Amino acid sequence: MATNEPPLDPVWEDMDRQLGQLFMMGFDGTSVTPQIRTLIQKHHLGSILLTAKNLKSAEETTQLVYELQKIAHDAGHPVPLAIGVDQENGGVNSLFDEIYIRQYPSAMGMAATGSTELAYEVAKATAQEIVACGINWMFGPCLDVLTNARNQPLGVRTAGDDPQEVSSFGIAYMKGYKDAGCATMGKHFPSYGNLEFLGSALDVPIITESLEQLSLSALVPFRNAIAHGLDAMMVGGCAMSSAGLNVMHACLSEQVVDELLRTDLNFDGVVVSECLEMEALSHNIGVGGGTVMAVNAGCDIVLLCRSFSVQQEAINGLKLGIENSMLTKARIRQSLRRVLAMKAKCASWEKALNPPGVPLLSTMQPSHTSLSTKAYNSSITVVRDKSRFLPLSNIIEPEEELLLLTPLVKPLAASAAARALSESAAANSPEPAVWERSASVMSGERVFRELGRALARQRSGRVLHTSYTANGVRPVHENLINRASAIIVLTADANRNLYQHGFTKHVSMICNSQYSAGGERREKPLVVVSVSSPYDFAMDQSIGTYICTFDFTETALNSLVKVLYGEITPTGNLPGTISQSQKLHQSRQHWLVEIFNEDRDANGLDALIKAVVDGTPPNQRSELLGSNSNSFLLHNSEVIESHFVVRNSSTQALYGFCATYFFKSTGTGAIGALFVDPQRRKLSIGHSLHNRAIRTLLQREGIKRFQLGTRLPSIFLGNPTGHGAERKRLRSWFANMGWNTALSRPVCSMIAKDLSNWSPPDGMAKSLQSAGAEFDLVYGWEYSSAVLDHIKTSNRQGLAEVYKLALTDPASCGIIRAKRPEDGAIVGTVVLYSMASRLAEFVPAMKDTNELTGGISSPVISPGAGEYSTLLQGLILLGIRQIKQQGCNACVLDYMDGDGNFDGLSALGFNVLHVFEEVSCDAATWTMVPPS
Fold first, then answer.
1. Which CATH architecture has domain 759-908?
2. Given the DSSP bridges, would you call strands 239-242 and 206-207 parallel, antiparallel or unpaired?
3. Which segment of the chain is annotated as a signal peptide (predicted)?
4. Whether residue 365 has pLDDT greater than 50
5. What is d(CA 618, CA 608) in angstroms, rounded to the nearest whole number?
6. Which of 83, 106, 85 shows the shortest CA–CA distance to 96?
7. How far apart are the C-alpha atoms of 453 and 473, rounded to whole Å?
């Protein structure tokens, strides 16, 4: 800290006053609570975050903000509170008032207008409205570069994927906010534009890009905003993992805050931490310790959103950190100076105690309404209109019917529908805003119902309107499509809500298969409108007419109606690189995919398997260990198998292999393996193989669902998971290919070794006696009827084939049964097999042990059979005993639920070999796969 800085006012000698300025806190409710009053009066809280849960109307917001400032003033605060909100527009607005607060497009919607001047005007108007209510800190602009567009929650909150475009619009917003008298805050440093999500709330999203990669793209808007005088920066709570950088939470890392942001980017404004109440952070570190770490890392203000007990924990943690000399007083004063410098720009007691409120908002309303309309009209983007269906008035007569199909989604917070729904829920429940937690699928109906009415009013004709869900195209939809003369389908983030993608493609197929009375093929007009992310169908040329609105507030949909009927000429353009190149991804090579020929390709597949095994990182165990070309060939009359290769026809070398199986008994099409030569990855070989596999499976008669991973052969039970960047990339890759990895089922294989020294755990035999079951071991097809009836209680794919294989091989396989003593009914089974069995050929882990090994496979416990874990342990315990008696020294468990309690199996001596995500989806939602 510079030594020539003027001394602080003596009023700041009170350490509690200093510490209070280092916190920003929120609270629940639309009026001042005893908790927030205590924080201001007793703990000298310096900044407050207001969210949609605090704010009702502009008038009540003004009153609430005034009361908060009055409490601070009367408590002797030397400077006013900094009071901040998220008011990004689009779908993220904390303050909504149908009369006085205008709605404007999202950041990506504004980028679609192509005008930074218009963006400046919108930002200034937005800030003027919240300043009129007494709010002095805008949580914006959003400076993230969307480097992974397909799978990100940020969506249209960012201007796009071009760092220079994001930068220019970000600076325009920042200048608009400043000129309205607001402090600014860039977010979310170092970038939320390419996060990898691992699933659990306790798993922190990860940035895997290196600092060099970030510097070339993601950091560009932050660097430029700093150069133009950004007041504050929010540092995210994400993890960072790349060469030379391993950070659990960015906002707690000196490497990120002090070195990267302060030193490398030369930022000396206020640094605000991510909310320390986030579950992953509080669970991993604790709020008290996290607060000390955040300040030590260089954060000036620590954010705690709502829990009073947690907020007190943070304050006490910071005090303890000073008492224990973990933090210096000089460090506290350094942050204090930065906070006071920012407040001097945007706050004074004169302004804080005299908010202009509704009178000023009333005078601004006409010009701001005009600006809102102009911005939305300029943002609507017609990406394609190949058959010139627009305007609709040119292709549909007044007496003909127009069909509107809309998804069931929650309305945006900044909408009258959301407000009405929230108030309705509050009136019928002791708890406010119930709909926000339940995320009721019905709640988006109000917004789209009004769109249907607006379409009907505009054309003076009949508009049919119904919704669609993950159930796909139903008979009611088909009837309406046949009846209507033109169809409009709305989608909202179809890349993350895959049912919308499948539904739209199905409707498109129906519209392209229409015939006239004379038997001639006739295309029925279809208009697809993305009302959120433009990436839904940006690259899908089969959707001939495609429009983007970038949000689905009432104002946006009013502009959409005008575009559909030709009242305004759309001028918007897709932002970023999809506008410049019309490509979401780098140009893909189209590899020739051939059907696997055993005679021709067996040796090549063996060599490819070896290359994949040899290319596995040293700290991982390849799932292909012990496998060869025969491991994938079932030759089972009840399973249709088709395998594919990408090969060099000159050298016969295989570059990639994909195995597919269609299980006729369940109508399941499975991808059982997909791997590429490590030296030839990222060349679209996997993409070409995957698309050929899906197209082939779609043609199978009776196809009902797809599955990633197979039980038979038991090599890849799903997408391999676990630690390592490659495993995380795999999950993202399959998600981008259309698999909903969020709806996955963890499964695993396990192994027990050194059976010669094995003995059952103490007390286990006694616990089995209390299970209320009798156990036996049977061999041969004569037992098939009861066993196969029993396994029908499980809907897992491949079970029937495994059990039939075992029942027809009595010399090498058996079935252990658990039966009810009173009636002999089977309540549990497991397959027992040896290395000599046909089944063992499809379990490579059996061969890889290099010692005599036995196998236990596919446990099935009847629903309602009693204590699941006890029966399972009993079946496996008897299996191990049998395997040990046969002289085996190892036992493989090759198909187990991966989310179960492993304590019982660990007690039996088992360790996990491999963990997978088994992913299933309805084949109907994957009507057509976009070509690679």
1. 3-Layer(aba) Sandwich (3.40)
2. parallel
3. none
4. yes
5. 18
6. 85
7. 23
Nearest-CA neighbor of 486 among 588, 381, 395, 595?
Answer: 395
Of 39-43, 344-348, 410-414, 649-653, the least confident: 410-414
Q: Domain residue spans in the chain?
A: 22-362, 381-571, 594-739, 759-908
Could you identify the residue written with the tokens 């496998």?
A: 627
Q: What length does the chain have?
A: 932
pLDDT cut 90: percent of the chain above it: 53
Two domains, one topology: 594-739 and 759-908: yes
Task: Specify whether the CB–CB gap between 236 and 204 falls below 8 A.
Answer: no
DSSP state of 183: B
103 CB contacts (<8 Å, ≥6 apart)? 89, 93, 372, 414, 415, 553, 554, 555, 556
Strand partners, 545: 385
Omega within 30 of 0 (cis) for the link into 713: yes
742-761 per-position pLDDT tens digit: 667 788 889 999 898 888 88
Alpha-carbon distance of 548 to 534, in angstroms, equals: 6
CATH 3.40.50.1700 for domain 381-571, yes or no, is: yes
Name residue, tokens 């353009």: 573
pLDDT on residue 105: 96
User: For residues 491 and 517, what is the distance between their CA atoms, to the nearest angstrom?
Assistant: 32
Find the helix packing angle between 287-297 and 329-346, rounded to 10°. 80
- Mean pLDDT (the chain) is 86
Sign of the dihedral through C-alpha 907, 908, 911, 914 = negative
How far is the C-alpha of 404 from the C-alpha of 768, rounded, in Å?
A: 60
For domain 594-739, the question of CATH label 3.40.630.30 is answered with: yes
Q: Which two tokens stand for residue 906?
A: 């660990």
Domain 22-362: give its CATH superfamily.
Glycoside hydrolase, family 3, N-terminal domain (3.20.20.300)
Query: Quick one: how far is CA 662 from the chain centroid?
Result: 30
Are 924 and 506 in contact, with CB atoms under 8 Å apart?
yes
d(CA 341, CA 765): 72
912: which strand partners?
750
Kindly state the tokens that stand for 855: 């196998």
